[in-house]
Amino acid sequence: MTVLSKHDALLLDLDGTVWEGGRPLSNVVDVINTCGVPAVYVTNNASRSPQAVAKMLGDIGLTAGTEQIVTSAQAVLQLAAEEVPAGAKLLIIGADSLRDLARHMGFKVVSSADDKPAAVVQGFDRSVGWEHLTEGALAIRQGAKFFASNLDTSLPIERGLAVGNGSLVAAIQSATGVEPVSAGKPEPAMFTFAAKQIGAKKPLAVGDRLDTDIAGGNSAAMDTFHVLTGVSGELELIEAPVEARPNFIGAGMHELALPVSVARPGAQGGFTARCDGHDLLLEGGDEKSTSVQALRTVLEVAWAMPSPPRYIQPRSERAEKVVAQWR
């Protein structure tokens, strides 16, 4: 049984999983188009409307209706609607699409703390600056509730990891001492909503970030598949807390085709791993053994230790070569 055949739907993160700065990652489009199960795109990025995301997906060869896209912008406004009166004033910090969605839900959108908003809703947008953050801080100090679409501290782009919404939210939190209520991953709501959209009974959550994609899928009691194409690399996996550990690990989405027994942590590729005090020794492997095979071998042992290993010590030529590739 392969990882893919074990599940009836894919709940896919976008940034770092499907694309990088809008450019599709290797093999992703072919995998999604030929996988034979429905996909829903679950993204913490609140800067784009579902319609805009659907168009971007279409531009890279993936057909998706707006019902197949769940954004943290939708989630945060649903959360705000449960906490403030219908038609209340919201000070929106973020993209125009977030403001449009708020208006569509019947809220009155304002841009100044002087308008006495009932809540501040912050989502990611590249144009957010000091003035926007200051208005939000002033409104919160005057009693407005504080909501954030997501708390991702970084955002994968083609040049590397850019400043994410969580880092911008932290500026207001630092200035006010008020912690926002976050609607996005790792909260389970977006995952359960996405599964209901397509009637999935056994969905697989796929993502590149342990503290949002994987922790969120786990919190929704779903199987999770971590791809090494975005934020969280090998070293972060080794040190991951229990709640952020994926069921399966792949170099990319093409490894959804692997047998379940291979994609799980476990000895493979001719590698063996064992504890040596607080360290972990990696041995074996041959010229065809891969970095991700070494990682799965290490994870089975590392995750059974009472605390993360102090050092990973490669004890063979191949082990040294693949560990040098880890980040």
From TrEMBL:
Source species: Corynebacterium pseudogenitalium ATCC 33035
Domain of life of the organism encoding this protein: Bacteria
UniProt-recorded name of the protein: HAD hydrolase, family IIA
PANTHER family: 4-NITROPHENYLPHOSPHATASE-RELATED, D-GLYCEROL 3-PHOSPHATE PHOSPHATASE
Matching InterPro entries: HAD-like_sf, HAD-SF_hydro_IIA, HAD_sf
Keyword annotations of the record: Hydrolase
Highest classification ranks of the organism: Bacteria, Bacillati, Actinomycetota, Actinomycetes, Mycobacteriales
Keyword set includes ATP-binding: no
GO cellular component, as recorded: cytoplasm
Pfam family, one: Hydrolase_like
